[in-house]
Structures are given as structure tokens and as C-alpha cells.
């Protein structure tokens, strides 16, 4: 889960082929518009505690994993 102190700037998605989509404000809606699809199913992964976590969408035969893009608050490396 994203820490509350981190500001979410938007979202990005990556599919199983390595294709990325950046600048998503509403991931499901934006991915459907960019791929020309009219249907999306939620995609889940199983966690060790026997729960399922929503991680993205299956749209047009592609498995899109969605990531939150947050502002960087770390120090120099």
C-alpha cells in the first residue's frame, strides 16, 4: 500500500510483452481508450496470507499491471 505521505502523480501500466503506457489518470478507462477496447476484467495475484490483491486489468488479450507513480522523496544514492 502507498504511504499517505507520498503524493501520487498518476499511474503507469506494463503488459506481459513489455509495452508500457504512461500518464494514466484513470487506469482502466485510459487503457481501454488507448487500446480501443470496450471490456476489461480485473486481474489479481494471490498473497501469502491467502488473500487476493487487485493489481491490474486484462484488456484486449493483454495483462496490464498498474503501478502508482509517486514523487521521489528519497535522498541521494
Task: Summarize the structure in words.
12% of the residues lie in helices and 47% in strands. It has 77 residues and is mainly beta. It has one domain. Strand 4 and strand 5 form a beta hairpin. It is globular, with a radius of gyration of 14 Å. The two termini are 24 Å apart.
Q: What's the mean pLDDT score?
A: 91
First-last Cα distance: 24 Å
Roughly what percent helix?
10-25%
Low-confidence stretches: none
Radius of gyration: 14 Å
Strand content: over 45%
Q: How would you describe the shape?
A: globular
Largest beta-sheet characterization: 5 strands, antiparallel
Number of helices: 1
What is the string of helix and strand elements?
A: EEHEEE
Number of beta-strand segments? 5
| Quaternary state of the chains | single chain
Q: Which structural category fits the helices and strands?
A: mainly beta
Strand order of the largest sheet: 2-1-5-4-3
Condensed summary:
The chain has 77 residues and is mainly β.
List the SSEs and their pairings.
Elements: E1 8-14, E2 20-24, H1 27-35, E3 40-46, E4 52-59, E5 62-70
Antiparallel strand pairs: 1-2, 1-5, 3-4, 4-5
Main traits of this protein?
single chain, 77 residues, mainly beta, 5-stranded antiparallel sheet, 1 helix
